[in-house]
Amino acid sequence: MVASLKRWVVGTPIRTEHAAHERLSRKTALAVFSSDALSSTAYATEEILLVLAAAYAAGQTAAFSKVIPVSIGIATLLVIVAISYRQTIRAYPSGGGAYIVAKDNLGTMAGLIAGASLLVDYILTVSVSIAAGVAALTSMFQGTRFYWLDDHKVALCLFFIAFIAVANLRGVRESGALFAGPTYAFLVAFIFMIAYGFVHYYANPGSIPTPLAPGQDPELKIAEGYIIQSLSIFLILGAFSNGCAALTGIEAISNGVPAFKQPEAHNASVTLTWMAALLTIMFVGTSVMAYLYNVHPHEHETVISQFARIIFHGPMGWFYYVVQITTAAILVLAANTSFADFPRLAQLLARDRFLPRQFANRGDRLVFSNGVIILAVFSGLLVTAFGGDTSRLIPLYAVGVFLSFTLSQTGMVRHWLKEGAALRRKGRIAGAHKEALNEEGVKIKVADNPVDEAEEKEEASHWKKSIVINGVGAIATFVVLVVFIATKFIHGAWVVVLLIPLLVLLFRSIHSHYVEVAKQLSTEGLEKLRPIKHEVIVPISGIHRGVISALEYAKSIAPEHVTAVYIDLDEEATRKLREKWDQWGVGVKLVVLASPYRSLVRPLLSYIDRVERRAHDDVVTVVLPEFVPARWWQNLLHNQNSLLLKGALLFKKGIVVTNVPYHLEH
Amino acid sequence: MVASLKRWVVGTPIRTEHAAHERLSRKTALAVFSSDALSSTAYATEEILLVLAAAYAAGQTAAFSKVIPVSIGIATLLVIVAISYRQTIRAYPSGGGAYIVAKDNLGTMAGLIAGASLLVDYILTVSVSIAAGVAALTSMFQGTRFYWLDDHKVALCLFFIAFIAVANLRGVRESGALFAGPTYAFLVAFIFMIAYGFVHYYANPGSIPTPLAPGQDPELKIAEGYIIQSLSIFLILGAFSNGCAALTGIEAISNGVPAFKQPEAHNASVTLTWMAALLTIMFVGTSVMAYLYNVHPHEHETVISQFARIIFHGPMGWFYYVVQITTAAILVLAANTSFADFPRLAQLLARDRFLPRQFANRGDRLVFSNGVIILAVFSGLLVTAFGGDTSRLIPLYAVGVFLSFTLSQTGMVRHWLKEGAALRRKGRIAGAHKEALNEEGVKIKVADNPVDEAEEKEEASHWKKSIVINGVGAIATFVVLVVFIATKFIHGAWVVVLLIPLLVLLFRSIHSHYVEVAKQLSTEGLEKLRPIKHEVIVPISGIHRGVISALEYAKSIAPEHVTAVYIDLDEEATRKLREKWDQWGVGVKLVVLASPYRSLVRPLLSYIDRVERRAHDDVVTVVLPEFVPARWWQNLLHNQNSLLLKGALLFKKGIVVTNVPYHLEH
Questions:
Q1: What total number of domains does chain B contain?
Q2: Chain A residues within 8 A of B619 when measuring between CB atoms
């Protein structure tokens, strides 16, 4: 019954050899890998405005104009990070996630920190994206008769998470077919919206709404945890930190290089450039539009929804819905990418014995099902705890992201240093050879010298340039990380700052358990075992066919070393048993144990203890006669003594337990 | 952990030989056995008034005066039943419950019907008594600042039920010490109340409250299911049926004869007479008082509470609280008697194989714990379903009681008929002997004739008189049963009318299951078993110490018939295993199974199937290597494959499963 329910939800199993490996063209790869990054434009601008609102509420009417410099700052960071990741693509054509890059170059500990950061990041990506997607939908219903959906954000979030989780348990692929439509629709709709906004702004200068004065807007929303205050460098940095959510997901392409068509690294590089360019345009464009149109962050409607409502009206009114729906769709897709990434990373960690090995099992549909389930549960808990509000989740978000950026970029610096050292060694040999030639005073081109000078020069200059690029990336992301923690610590970042070391501790203790088990189970040093000598105990509840077949079985193991044990609960019954024993005891010794407290299990266990102590190296086997009713509910009509005993024996060291079933009919 | 929680709630185990058998004097026996019967005076009068209220509300101001004839009718019935039960005491000095009497004299079916009726009756006794006890308490709080307790009747009821259940699981005894205090306090308080009411009535004629006219009393409560209507014979019979709740518990003494001091039957008889007399006085007295003082049934206060409030005031005001508290206390004791009776009857039924045998197990404290738990659960469900309202439970109550009365009395008639037949046979022999003497014309007293004429006469007249008494009892209770069902069927009696046959069906199907099992397990006709030939399968997940010791164990059972089975999930791992097998396979044959769907269990099961089909009469044993981590939570870090496999093998016929544990350290 449970099995057929599972079939219905998850689908029939897929054979192992059907695991497909689609190769993606640049266009589809852009759709597949960039939904996470691009979708963050749906909320990044709003998150900046939410912090600036604290100063606006304090009466500084120009506070919101700071969204422009802050956005440009973030866009600059974005370009730096994107350029850095192009280096990673070059160096790790087989896929360079932060866990692998950090572990390879900075050691296991750094790898684990990156792994923990990423796991946390993936969970938050799901929560934030789904919350933002739901906000896009509920914004659309403001002013309609479905406005009340706004009160059920958490339920809507949980519904979407469950939906995506089931789709992933069924083994939805990161296929172009699925991603291309929504991603390109969103791109087109969003870019059109920004362009239309520009044109509309200059065409209808009168249509720009006058902003409500500070204190006159009851709907004005300020970022959670911020009190009304004047503009300060700290507030601006807070706005900047919030906006850094725009960078999340930018690393996706460098993780997925092997999925590209040949030449993989080149295609991935080009795609990353395109994605960064689009992301910059869309994010900065949104911020500029929000500024031009005086859109303020509101409680029940997103900034983008407000802006789109202003510019799309009359015959263009329908386009508002296009924007909202494509926004919601790409946010759901963004969550979906975490459902591919989290289980994959969990599997890597499990394979390296840092997470329970169950994460490395492929389910019926070839999916790492346990990872999918755990991700759904934790992201669901998060959304519930934070009331399905994107802005309350943001302070937790970027810690993991920027920590993994920093570790990954630092790892790359180390990578190039190692490569440089290798090149220098090679170069020195080649140089020595040349010098020797020079000493002879003759300049000959040696044909079998494999070192092409030009190529060598290029390689040498390349690794140096790479160190600079990744070094800048590492420093920039590290500085942002520090700024982020400093500005967001009390707003929630502390949770993640605490959680990551705890996760690392967990990874390490899991690892040491597995190492210890492997050591204990190792055949290393195992000597030839002596032949086994048996001591067999058969607990009996009376004499019946089930008991007799168990006795026969026991005798077949150790003809001379079988003891039947009976618990005396009732004098009369015991007397009868003794009488029958001569006929049916098949020559086995009978031991009757007293049980003053009417317990069956305790006297038996202490008897087994005694036998075991006496037995030294002999193997003690308890043979349990067990009759199995024809129907499961008939078990209710029988004492579950053999079950109880089995449970109790589970914790006894070195006891072998054998069930000899006697199956009843009807 | 669970064990120590259980210790704390239930207490430490008691040794079997400590089962004490207290013998009760008449005075303590009256306390122990009559709490159920006497306590019903707390609600019986009110239940009559509730029905009459339907006519009062219709404008018939004299309707409540009918409480007097109805109560006298019930008292008459009470006397008949009490006299009948004196016969049972005589005939069954070892305790004659309805189940035993009906089964002995009318056959198993009648016994089962009586048994089912009694079980239902006991559950309802708990529910009704606790609900009435809680009503006595909440009435007391009317007009105080604890009036809101009235809205939490169900919670209070559940609390008391849980309290009594735990006390019984701890093995509270039906001891004089426990019962005597509250029972005699209640007796004294109640009888004093009635007597004081009488005196008060004639001393202060002005103090009688004028009854509110029909329609002017917003608090007036009418029995559930009754519409406002004129007095009719049907309404009177309904009131009579409701009042019959007063008779419940009257059979308790006849069940408990062996607990009396010697001469048991005589002492029991005397006690029964006392109980019946007290019950009659208290019940009729209450009805008369309710009539004299114009007390009408109300929603939030019991009739007795209202009456006691009227008469006890000024310096006697404190006595009101004495009445309410002793009433609540005896009602809790009444529920407690069911907690002794239900498990005892369930044990009798289980012993006769009509209920699961678990009901016959004595728990740690020598109590039939399962019966206690089941009773608490069902009575708790009932109180909850009926909102803790006594009057809504009453229509379900008396069906079981009067059905068991009728069966018991009919059984007694049959008993006396059989005894009469036996006497007549004896008498005929004696008579023939005497006639022979008469023919000789000589009247001699034959010394060795054991038949004493006077004694014989007395015996003969006794069994005839007994037939009449029990016959009248049987007819009376049967008529009341019919009246009850006719008047209360739609008000809830149908539930019990339906439930009793269903229970009987359940008893019978449980019985036939046990009979079938006994037949199948019987050693009858069992021939000498042939020596066992083994076929042993060892599923392995790789090569480690745990696997090797399992292989060694398997070889010790059947050196030549062991097969190790490995599931191929990964080519590389399989290749490595094959390589290691030569060194560590201890000469055992290795079978590698393909698993296209990555399942471990399914290919193994079908392999075992194939082996079993090939094996014919050989015994197939699956030896499961199992490593047991040192701490339970470490299980989370390991695939539970051997557990899964064990579960799956449970449903395979004829497979012996052996666990060879390998215990890990730390």
A1: 2
A2: 553, 556
Q: Do B597 and A638 touch (CB under 8 A)?
A: no
Q: Provide the pLDDT for residue B21.
A: 64
Give A23's DSSP letter.
P
Query: What does the block give as tokens for A145?
Result: 């008769």
Out of A493, A509, A525, a domain closes at: A509
Is the predicted ipTM greater than 0.95, yes or no? no
pLDDT digits (tens, 9 = 90+) for A133-183: 999 999 998 888 888 888 899 999 999 999 999 888 887 665 667 788 899
Q: What is the CATH number of the domain that holds A591?
A: 3.40.50.620
* Rounded-to-integer distance, Cα B659 and Cα B410, Å: 58
What is the DSSP-derived secondary structure letter of residue A352?
A: T
Q: Facing residues of A659 across strands?
A: A624, B657
Mutation for testing the B interface, residue in A557, A586, A641 having most B CBs under 10 Å: A557
- Count Cβ–Cβ pairs < 8 Å, chain A vs chain B: 161
Task: Answer yes or no: do B550 and B617 share one domain.
Answer: yes
Q: What is the pLDDT of residue B446?
A: 47
Per-residue confidence band for B361, with pLDDT thresholds at 50, 70 and 90: confident
Of A521, A639, A659, the CB nearest to B627: A521
In SS3 terms, A409-447 reads as: HHHHHHHHHHHHHHHHHHHHHHHHHHHHHHHCCCCCCCC
| B486 and B563, same domain (yes or no) | no
A10 within 8 A of A158, measured Cβ to Cβ: no
What one-letter code names the amino acid at A565?
V
Query: How far is CA A53 from each of CA A65, A74, A489, B589, rounded to the nearest angstrom?
Result: 11, 19, 20, 76
| Nearest-by-Cβ selection for B598 from A16, A627, A636 | A16
- The confidence score (pLDDT) of residue B296 equals 94
Residue type, A271: T
Per-residue pLDDT at A383: 95
Residue A210 per-residue DSSP state? P
User: Tell me: the pLDDT tens digits for B464-516?
Assistant: 889 999 999 999 999 999 999 999 999 989 999 999 999 999 999 999 999 98
Of A356, A526, A629, the CB nearest to B636: A356
Report DSSP state, residue A586.
T
Q: Which domain holds residue A270?
A: 2-11+48-416+477-509
Spatial contact of A538 and A611, defined as CB atoms under 8 Å apart: no
Beta carbons of A13 and B597 less than 8 Å apart: yes
Any domain includes B196? yes
pLDDT in tens, B174-192: 566 778 889 999 999 999 9
Calculate the CA A98 to chain-centre distance.
13
Has this prediction a pTM greater than 0.95? no
Choose among B357, B548, B553: nearest Cβ to A656.
Answer: B553
Decide if A346 contacts A368 (C-beta within 8 A). Answer: yes
- CATH (domain of B64): 1.20.1740.10
For A575, the token pair is: 């007397």
For residue B266, the number of C-alpha atoms closer than 13 Å in the C-beta half-sphere is: 3
Answer for the pair A641, A541: CB distance below 8 angstroms, yes or no: yes
> Residue A548 and residue B532: Cβ atoms within 8 Å?
no
Q: Kindly indicate the confidence band of residue B432, based on its pLDDT and cuts at 50, 70 and 90.
A: very low
Minimum mean pLDDT range among A243-247, A332-336, B266-270, B529-533:
B529-533
Residue with tokens 């010298």: A449
Is the bond into A501 cis (omega within 30 degrees of 0)?
Answer: no
